[in-house]
Amino acid sequence: MKPVIVVHGGAGAILQKYAEGYRSGVKRAALRGYDILRQGGDAITAVEEAVVVLEDDPHFNAGHGSVLNEEGEVEMDAIIMDGKDLSSGAVSAVRCIANPIKLARLVMEKTDHMLLTGNGAALFAKSQGIPEIPGEKLISERSRERWKKNLLSSSTQKGFGTVGAVAVDSQGNVASATSTGGITNKMVGRVGDTACIGSGGYADNNSGAVSTTGHGESIMKVTLARLILHYMEQGMSVEEAADAGLNYMKTRVDDSGGVIVVNSAGEWTAKFSTNQMSWAAIKDDNLNCGIYLGENEIIPISENL
Amino acid sequence: MDITPVIVVHGGAWAIPDDLAESSKSGVKSAAKCGFSVLANGGSAVNAVECAVQMLEDNNVFDAGHGAVLNAEGDVELDAIIMDGRNLAVGAVSCIKNIANPVKFARTVMEKTPHVMLTGAGANKFAETMNIKQVPREELVTELALKEWEQYQKYQQSVTSLFNSEQMHDTVGAVAIDSEGNVACATSTGGITNKMVGRVGDSPIIGSGAYADNFTGAVSTTGHGESIMKVTLARLVLFNMEKGETRQDAADHALDYMKNKVHGRGGLITVCKTGEWAASFTTKRMAWASVKNNILTFGLNPGENFHEAIDT
């Protein structure tokens, strides 16, 4: 089985001046995940590590660079899922940690539960020796500016973003991971799609793995990740299923978003109904990457490493 | 469209001990009647499920609102969800404290915020601004919940082994279809005894604890939360219906899938868009009741189907 990784850095408007930053971020994340897969690592570790790269990059709305809630603070959601046995871990409304996706994996592996929230999640992080960092450290200049602007105009700008990864490893196991700071100016305690299994992510070896991005409330209403895999179970290809899921979200709740999908045969796709979504994928030592509709830059990865 | 309104409620799927059997039965019967009276008076499915679940939350017998179980620290943390199949509008709360009727609060989230889900302290803060009554923890804690907690503290069993022994309370819920053909669902729970602080189960997770869509039907689930989440049980039942399965097959197949795939047991109630309904479970017992055409149907043990005419 040839391993595959696909990552996204969020669907939504990407300003021209940041495009290169997004592009190099998703490429680095995909390369990081692929490196693990090529060395025989499993899909779950590959998606975790790829998402860590994106959480650490302040361009993206996850970990460092997360958007701010109505009180000017960072609260983050993340989920990880292993398609081998449907085990999953998630955290919601967590603060003051650098990598929510790592905490999600610990929830999966070290507890009887699947989702820990708020203060309880913080207590668990502490018990696992995850360092608490000042909330300030997660805030990028851009997030702060965006938040201030939002306060002034009382606009309802959604500030989309979310990062994610899906992978299939050489054993044919699939996995997914998604992480986000949510939407700018969200209410304190708001949980979006990302932490909710079946909405922000899902992985099942019998069908495939999905990570979603876009307006969280709309994604939840249609349980987008699970919907796409349902379509694949019905015989649709990864592309058809991704398009059908996004179309359904458009017609039923009038909203747009983006998804990355891989099936257990290693077929993959990156689709979005927003204007842009930064994404990258690696298969057969070729890196594919894009931001705009129809864009697909292909680079042999020997040039990248 | 003229649809005969239906309500179905459940009081949790688990090995309900004999000394709670009668009170569980009468609890779900009252809740079903309460929800049905809303429908009979032309009320919406959303109002009906809210009314029924509120009644179950107020009943000490059930693990939701009053009577909720205690977490590892002896505290009460509650989850709830409500969904309107007309437009897929949904509201949910997770890990909230000191609120007697989480389902009403979930409805407030649905109607008064741009969000779907609020959690923890942030949710409680919003409750304050909406003047939702907060009650002291003691008011929600029953003798039984306290006794259970003390026992679990003593033996330090894992949550999974506890659940598999089915000695756990779990969750209440309701589904309904109104005379206009709109479906809705609501689920509310205190979770599982001795859960970690901050643990969120399936109940407030859309597609796991509940789902409602006028194009197919509505579902409310109960059972081992982590297993329900792994298979997104509510959504799975509706997917099965979309494939053409009857509501009973859709329910049974989804529960079988959960048992075989992740070794989890549970129960669910469902109503489909034509008004046919089902109550199904793989645990030892589940208290459930339903009203359609002024006939109350209810049961507790597998295969039970008692009927009573109700006065209007």
TrEMBL record, chain A:
<keyword id="KW-0068">Autocatalytic cleavage</keyword>
<protein>
    <recommendedName>
        <fullName>Isoaspartyl peptidase/L-asparaginase</fullName>
        <ecNumber>3.4.19.5</ecNumber>
        <ecNumber>3.5.1.1</ecNumber>
    </recommendedName>
</protein>
<dbReference type="GO" id="GO:0006508">
    <property type="term" value="P:proteolysis"/>
</dbReference>
<dbReference type="InterPro" id="IPR033844">
    <property type="entry name" value="ASRGL1_meta"/>
</dbReference>
<keyword id="KW-0378">Hydrolase</keyword>
<dbReference type="InterPro" id="IPR029055">
    <property type="entry name" value="Ntn_hydrolases_N"/>
</dbReference>
<feature type="binding site">
    <location>
        <begin position="213"/>
        <end position="216"/>
    </location>
    <ligand>
        <name>substrate</name>
    </ligand>
</feature>
<keyword id="KW-0645">Protease</keyword>
<feature type="site" description="Cleavage; by autolysis">
    <location>
        <begin position="161"/>
        <end position="162"/>
    </location>
</feature>
<feature type="active site" description="Nucleophile">
    <location>
        <position position="162"/>
    </location>
</feature>
<dbReference type="GO" id="GO:0004067">
    <property type="term" value="F:asparaginase activity"/>
</dbReference>
<dbReference type="GO" id="GO:0005737">
    <property type="term" value="C:cytoplasm"/>
</dbReference>
<dbReference type="GO" id="GO:0033345">
    <property type="term" value="P:L-asparagine catabolic process via L-aspartate"/>
</dbReference>
<comment type="similarity">
    <text>Belongs to the Ntn-hydrolase family.</text>
</comment>
<dbReference type="Pfam" id="PF01112">
    <property type="entry name" value="Asparaginase_2"/>
</dbReference>
<dbReference type="InterPro" id="IPR000246">
    <property type="entry name" value="Peptidase_T2"/>
</dbReference>
<dbReference type="GO" id="GO:0008798">
    <property type="term" value="F:beta-aspartyl-peptidase activity"/>
</dbReference>
<feature type="binding site">
    <location>
        <begin position="190"/>
        <end position="193"/>
    </location>
    <ligand>
        <name>substrate</name>
    </ligand>
</feature>
Automatic annotation (TrEMBL), chain B:
<dbReference type="InterPro" id="IPR029055">
    <property type="entry name" value="Ntn_hydrolases_N"/>
</dbReference>
<dbReference type="GO" id="GO:0004067">
    <property type="term" value="F:asparaginase activity"/>
</dbReference>
<feature type="active site" description="Nucleophile">
    <location>
        <position position="171"/>
    </location>
</feature>
<dbReference type="GO" id="GO:0006508">
    <property type="term" value="P:proteolysis"/>
</dbReference>
<dbReference type="GO" id="GO:0005737">
    <property type="term" value="C:cytoplasm"/>
</dbReference>
<dbReference type="GO" id="GO:0033345">
    <property type="term" value="P:L-asparagine catabolic process via L-aspartate"/>
</dbReference>
<dbReference type="Pfam" id="PF01112">
    <property type="entry name" value="Asparaginase_2"/>
</dbReference>
<feature type="site" description="Cleavage; by autolysis">
    <location>
        <begin position="170"/>
        <end position="171"/>
    </location>
</feature>
<keyword id="KW-0378">Hydrolase</keyword>
<feature type="binding site">
    <location>
        <begin position="199"/>
        <end position="202"/>
    </location>
    <ligand>
        <name>substrate</name>
    </ligand>
</feature>
<keyword id="KW-0068">Autocatalytic cleavage</keyword>
<feature type="binding site">
    <location>
        <begin position="222"/>
        <end position="225"/>
    </location>
    <ligand>
        <name>substrate</name>
    </ligand>
</feature>
<dbReference type="GO" id="GO:0008798">
    <property type="term" value="F:beta-aspartyl-peptidase activity"/>
</dbReference>
<dbReference type="InterPro" id="IPR033844">
    <property type="entry name" value="ASRGL1_meta"/>
</dbReference>
<keyword id="KW-0645">Protease</keyword>
<dbReference type="InterPro" id="IPR000246">
    <property type="entry name" value="Peptidase_T2"/>
</dbReference>
<protein>
    <recommendedName>
        <fullName>Isoaspartyl peptidase/L-asparaginase</fullName>
        <ecNumber>3.4.19.5</ecNumber>
        <ecNumber>3.5.1.1</ecNumber>
    </recommendedName>
</protein>
<comment type="similarity">
    <text>Belongs to the Ntn-hydrolase family.</text>
</comment>
